[in-house]
Structures are given as C-alpha cells and as structure tokens.
TrEMBL record:
<feature type="transmembrane region" description="Helical">
    <location>
        <begin position="48"/>
        <end position="76"/>
    </location>
</feature>
<feature type="transmembrane region" description="Helical">
    <location>
        <begin position="139"/>
        <end position="161"/>
    </location>
</feature>
<dbReference type="GO" id="GO:0043252">
    <property type="term" value="P:sodium-independent organic anion transport"/>
</dbReference>
<keyword id="KW-1015">Disulfide bond</keyword>
<dbReference type="InterPro" id="IPR036259">
    <property type="entry name" value="MFS_trans_sf"/>
</dbReference>
<comment type="similarity">
    <text>Belongs to the organo anion transporter (TC 2.A.60) family.</text>
</comment>
<keyword id="KW-0812">Transmembrane</keyword>
<dbReference type="GO" id="GO:0016323">
    <property type="term" value="C:basolateral plasma membrane"/>
</dbReference>
<dbReference type="GO" id="GO:0015125">
    <property type="term" value="F:bile acid transmembrane transporter activity"/>
</dbReference>
<dbReference type="GO" id="GO:0006811">
    <property type="term" value="P:monoatomic ion transport"/>
</dbReference>
<dbReference type="Pfam" id="PF03137">
    <property type="entry name" value="OATP"/>
</dbReference>
<keyword id="KW-0472">Membrane</keyword>
<feature type="transmembrane region" description="Helical">
    <location>
        <begin position="173"/>
        <end position="191"/>
    </location>
</feature>
<keyword id="KW-0406">Ion transport</keyword>
<feature type="transmembrane region" description="Helical">
    <location>
        <begin position="97"/>
        <end position="119"/>
    </location>
</feature>
<keyword id="KW-0813">Transport</keyword>
<dbReference type="InterPro" id="IPR004156">
    <property type="entry name" value="OATP"/>
</dbReference>
C-alpha cells in the first residue's frame, strides 16, 4: 500500500478540453466543405475535388505518426533536465517520449491553417452548366440544415428533430451511414493496435513503430481515395454505378483482409499470461 500513489496531475483535463475544442472546430470542414464543392463546381469534377479533400485528410495522420515518431525519440522532460544524465534509451521499456510536444506543434499548425478560411468569400459564381441536370440526389442542404440547427437553442430543437428524422428516414443515406460505421470501426481498431502489436511482437520501439505505420499504412489509403475520384470522373459514374463500384472494391478488400489469418508469429512467452510462473 505504501507504493501506491494517487495521481496528482490534472493534465488529462486540458487534453480532454483541447480535443473537444479541436473537434468542434474541425467538424464543419468535411460536411460543409463537401457541400461547398458540390454547389460551386462542375458535377463531373466534384468526385476529384472530394477525393483530393479526403486524400489530404489522410496525409495529416501520416505526418502525425511521423511527428509522433520524432517526439518519441525525445525524452519527456526535454528542456527541463540535463539529457546527459539520462541513462536509458528509447529502446528501454521505461523510456517515456515527449508526448506533449506534438500537441504544441499541432496546435500552432492548426491555428496557422485556420487563418486562410477567414478570407474565403461568402459565395462564388456557379459555373454556367453546373447543377442544371444533376442525376444524383443532393441531400447536402438537409444535412447542412441539421448541422446549423443543432447549434441553436431550445426553441429550434423541434425543427432540428424534424430535419434529422428526414435525413435518417432516407434508406440510401441510412444504409451508407451504417456501412461507413462498420468500415471506420474496423479501420480505427486496426490502426490503433497495430503499433502496439509491432512493439510487442517484433521488439520495435514506440518511435520506430509510429514511423513505420505512418509511412506504410496511410499513404496507400490516400492514393486509393484519389484514384477512386479519378475513375469516377473518367467514367462519369451515376449513383447506381458508383454503388456497384464501391461494392466490388470493398469485396476485394475483404478477400485480401482474410489473408491476415494465414500470416503471423507465435506469441511471446509471458509469465503469468501465456505460461505459468513455474
């Protein structure tokens, strides 16, 4: 009992509030940005623009992993202690990297990236032939209505409920929502535990694991999103053809994912977990 210590740091509160504010600020970029592109771009160019938007969004985590790899090589108390007195290395299990440094760097970059948004015009002139004969269903105004109304106060909650019900009652949108939920759930789990698996299974440091993940996992995803947008633009896919294309690609990805069951390494012998203490 004498070895137990109560946590004295409340740094997690600042991290929680910081991530909450960051999420509030970043959320409108995707729904409103896509609606902005859909309203002011030619219909055949929208898939490429949206693909570029999502590709850049995937490059962010890639650079984040690389930045995390760099910060993990630095000691947690860098700038406050004499690094010459540190006797352990990043390969030591007791090593703690400068995890806090990434938040400062990311915060400054996010602030600088937000400045150009202040100079965007309120509206643009639409192309002459844009949105004249759309073959796809556009639900962006309804979605935007829900987003804006969700930020208002109590008297408008009934309108928000009506708009939300209208969106969720659309079978195509609801099916796509469920599909995206399943895909992102599996992807996030894979991305979350893969670095830790590389550390435990292959004896890699935290820094090198983050570096390898950022360099190998995310760029192919961004490339696939960009190529998908180019293919949709070239063949001018409508809603039905795009759905068939997405199904075929997802099915092929599922087949390749099954190969994970046939590769791997044996677990390390850990006393008390995989083998007995004797």
């Amino acid at each position: 009992a004498g070895c137990e210590k109560e946590p004295s740091s409340y740094m997690w509160i600042y991290i929680l509030l910081g991530n909450m504010l960051r999420g509030i600020g970043e959320t409108p970029i995707t729904p409103l940005g896509i609606s902005y592109l859909d309203d002011f771009a030619k219909e055949e160019d929208v898939p490429v623009y949206v693909a570029c938007l999502h590709t850049i969004a995937m490059l962010g985590p890639m650079f984040g992993f690389l930045l995390g790899s760099l910060c993990a090589r630095l000691y947690v108390d860098i700038g406050f202690v004499d690094l010459g007195s540190i006797t352990i290395t990043p390969q030591d299990s007791r090593w703690v990297g400068a995890w806090w440094l990434g938040f400062l760097i990311g915060g400054v970059i996010s602030f600088l990236a937000a400045i150009p948004f202040c100079f965007l015009p309120k509206s643009l002139k639409k192309p002459e032939e844009a949105n004249n004969d759309k073959t796809s269903y556009d639900y962006s105004p309804v979605i935007m209505l829900c987003i804006f109304q969700s930020q208002l106060i109590y008297p408008f909650l009934s309108d928000f409920y009506t708009s939300l019900k209208k969106v969720l009652s659309n079978r195509m949108y609801f099916t796509f929502l469920c599909c995206s939920l399943l895909q992102f759930s599996s992807f996030i789990g894979f991305l979350t535990y893969k670095p830790k698996y590389m550390e435990q299974q292959y004896g890699q440091s935290t820094s090198k694991s983050n570096f390898l993940i950022g360099l190998t996992s995310l760029p192919p995803i961004g490339l696939g999103i960009f190529l998908g947008g180019l293919i949709m633009k070239k063949y001018k896919m409508n809603l039905v053809v795009a759905t068939k294309f997405a199904f075929i690609m997802s099915f092929l990805a599922y087949i390749f994912t099954l190969l994970h069951f046939f590769v791997g390494c044996e677990n390390y012998m850990v006393a008390g977990m995989t083998v007995s203490y004797e």
